[in-house]
Design goal:
Elements: H1 3-53, H2 56-76, H3 80-85, H4 92-122, H5 125-128, H6 138-162, H7 171-204, E1 211-224, E2 227-239, E3 242-250, H8 266-272, H9 275-278, H10 289-304, E4 310-314, H11 316-326, E5 329-331, E6 335-337, H12 342-353, H13 357-376, H14 382-394, E7 398-402, H15 405-411, E8 429-436, E9 446-457, E10 463-473, H16 484-487, E11 503-510, E12 516-522, E13 525-526, E14 530-534, E15 537-546, E16 551-559, E17 569-572, E18 581-584
Length: 592
């Protein structure tokens, strides 16, 4: 064999060995990086849980471990070999993804998360919890810059990791990247809550001067779009963190007006009639809580001569979440309220025990004051209280509106706002809202659920959605024998054209902005809708009657707007026994 050919074969052989050796080194380092990144993801979760519970020592331990493992991952993916490997035609995406996650982990561990832990040591659930009627605001103000900066950096780094297409990675590397995406998303959610809290709580709790808030207690037994009729109400005063109830009343204190104190739009009048703006009990026919709050503020100013600085709202289910933190409380009259019985007592039992509406209202007011006193006195477990407030907001049972525009803009970025979006985004918004049509309290027995299934996606990024609304009456067979205050004022006769013990629901489907409702049916039979529009959303409305034990299945085919390929954002009127939110299947356009 010619000498040159032998040299060529020898050189190729050495090159092959070198490639194998280099591949082996990269593989070994990749395993090291994978192990380290999975550990970091676990540390991030541990750190988030520790910060939330106020366990400062555990948070420090988790942070130290995350720093060590993130350095290990970054070191394992650093150097000439990994830089060259990013250009490889097959594994380039995998290498680049792992390096990105390693760099993000190191950045967060060394910078943003350290600030979060330091801030959590200054402000933990124990310090945030009211004591003797006051929340200390100074610590919140002090840590606000650190929390806001850390939140911005965490979201920026989470976005970097979220942009990695894990479908293009080999399985061994996709796993730690997906795990990190999930953990960073959860951490970003927590940091957002903290950021909103430090920016909103001090001013809204009177750091710069006293604030007065109208507090609505919604009664889900007579369902309204945002939860239930605003039965009881109160005025809460906040002054440098000190909280007190200075007045209590009922929806009747909002008054009945000859004309709305603030003008209604044509869309609002067409959908909800003038009663939305003239009758205090109907101000939340609309699912847009900021609008409900504006109407409540205006009515209170007209009837009581007081301008409130904001409006808050809660329902009995939200109160039951708070009772998990306070433990049972004794209400005047000899009734003990607990997290387990609050809903039944407030939405059902009171009507069986007490026929006089005035005494019912007195009981509601007493219950609200008792729970409020238990919370602000410092009786509640701090971590459980924060969890209850978070759960109430997430479930659409706690709302807040501020008359200060800058504060309201921040609130509208959170679930607390209860706002119907006025601009289309990449995630299509679908809302299913219900209003009682009988002035009875039968919706204590309502069981409802909304499921959404995207079934198609076209070239415009427009999705086709199947929306299924199931409603069922769990009322007893002899519901007509229930108290008059439950079935309506005319026992034994029809009320609003509905037999005693039956319920009537006005159901409104809000389709995404830019989309439309293509078809609708009730129990499989095509049914025409009354189609209108509200703030850019096509709205389909229909009325459904339910007798005891009866169920109805409403189905809709909905088209989203263009360039709405994201996962569906579903909001449903919460009920006495559930949120109403069922299954929401993954978006039909692929991706996240």
């Amino acid at each position: 064999m010619p000498r040159n050919l032998l040299r060529l074969r020898w050189a190729l052989g050495l090159t092959g060995v070198a490639v194998v050796l280099l591949a082996g080194v990269l593989a070994y380092q990749a395993v090291q990086a994978r192990t380290a990144l999975l550990t970091v993801a676990g540390d991030f979760q541990h750190l988030a849980d520790s910060v939330r519970s106020g366990d400062e020592q555990s948070a420090r331990t988790a942070l130290d471990s995350a720093r060590e493992e993130s350095r290990r991952a970054e070191n394992a993916t650093d150097g000439v070999l990994w830089s060259a490997a990013t250009q490889a035609p097959v594994l380039g995406d995998d290498v680049d993804a792992v390096r990105t996650v390693a760099q993000v982990s190191r950045t967060l561990s060394d910078d943003a998360l350290g600030g979060v832990v330091a801030a959590s040591e200054a402000v933990n659930p124990e310090q945030l919890s009211p004591r003797h009627g006051r929340i200390s605001l100074a610590p919140l103000t002090k840590v606000a810059p650190t929390i806001v900066a850390a939140d911005e950096q965490l979201h920026a780094q989470a976005d970097r990791v979220d942009q990695i297409d894990t479908g293009a990675l080999v399985a061994q590397l996709a796993s730690p990247v997906e795990e990190m995406q999930r953990k960073l998303s959860a951490a970003a959610t927590l940091s957002s809550r903290a950021s909103y809290a430090v920016r909103l709580l001090p001013p809204m709790l009177g750091a710069d001067g006293p604030r007065n808030y109208l507090v609505l207690f919604q009664n889900n037994a007579e369902i309204r779009a945002t939860g239930g009729i605003p039965g009881a109400l109160a005025v809460m005063r906040a002054d440098r963190g000190k909280l007190s109830l200075v007045r209590q009343g009922t929806a009747s204190d909002l008054g009945i007006h000859q004309k709305p104190p603030i003008p209604l739009t044509r869309e609002e009048t067409a959908l909800y009639e003038r009663k939305l703006g003239t009758y205090g009990a109907d101000i939340n026919f609309t699912p847009d809580f900021p609008r409900t709050a504006e109407l409540a503020q205006a009515m209170w100013r007209v009837t009581k001569g007081q301008k409130v600085d904001g409006v808050l709202s809660a329902d009995p289910v939200a109160l039951s979440y708070l009772l998990e933190a306070t433990g049972p409380v004794r209400v005047p009259g000899g009734v003990t309220l607990s997290s387990g019985n609050a809903v039944d007592v407030l939405l059902s039992d009171v009507y069986r025990r007490q026929a006089d509406p005035e005494k019912q209202n007195f009981f509601f007011a007493s219950a609200a004051r008792t729970v409020f006193t238990a919370v602000v006195s410092g009786r509640a477990d701090p971590s459980a209280l924060l969890d209850g407030l978070t759960r109430g907001a997430t479930d659409g049972r706690l709302f807040a509106w501020s008359d200060v525009p800058a504060e309201q803009r921040l609130l509208e970025e959170t679930p607390l706002a209860g706002a119907v979006p006025r601009q289309a985004g990449p995630s299509p918004y679908v809302g299913v809202f219900m209003n009682d049509g009988t002035a009875a309290k039968m919706e204590y027995y309502l069981d409802h659920r909304v499921d959404v299934k995207p079934v198609g996606c076209n070239s415009e990024g427009r999705q086709e959605l199947e929306v299924t609304v199931t409603v069922k009456s769990d009322a007893p067979r002899r519901a007509a024998d229930l108290p008059v205050s439950v079935i309506g004022p005319r026992k034994g006769k029809s009320w609003f054209g509905v037999e005693p013990g039956h319920m009537r629901l006005n159901v409104h489907l809000y389709a995404p902005i830019g989309g439309w409702i293509r078809a609708s049916a009730v129990d499989g039979q095509e049914t025409p809708l009354n189609e209108l529009e509200h703030d850019g959303h096509p709205v389909g409305s229909q009325t459904v009657d339910l007798g005891p034990g009866e169920a109805r299945r409403l189905t809709y085919t909905v088209m989203t707007g263009v360039q709405q390929p994201g996962p569906v954002e579903l909001r449903v009127t919460p009920g006495a026994h559930g949120s109403g939110v069922g299954d929401v299947a993954p978006n039909a356009c692929g991706g996240s």
